[in-house]
Amino acid sequence: MIGYGRAAWVTACVLLALHIGGSHQQQQQQCTTPTRLRGRCISIYECDSILDYFKQRILTWEEREFLRKSQCTGATSGRQPFVCCPGNGAKPVVPSPASPMEQATTTTTQAPTSDAVLDQLAGGLLPNPKKNECGVSIGMRIYGGEN
User: Where exactly are the structural domains of the chain?
Assistant: First the structure.
């Protein structure tokens, strides 16, 4: 029989090892969300705030980008993908699409369309229908058929 003192010592060592291992695992799982909140890197299927917000909807480009930025790699268990889930259960704050005034304006210029320039751009490889050039077909043909 093991004495009471020895059993208490073994129990204390086991509890200390579990505590140190658990705190080390928690440190590895800490992360920062795209909105700079502290969170834990867990399976998206365990993160109710993100899962409830995004499930059964068609996502905008901004929401897809938010999910991409939410991905993390510190999780050690669970189903992929892993996301940085806010610790306080906060709902995701996805940036709204840029307004037309915020988007960069682009100007277009008309490209030159002369036949010489088009021949240079195409490298002379494409037939020019304006010059009655037809495409070349090397495919199978019917015996006795015409071109």
Answer: 32-89
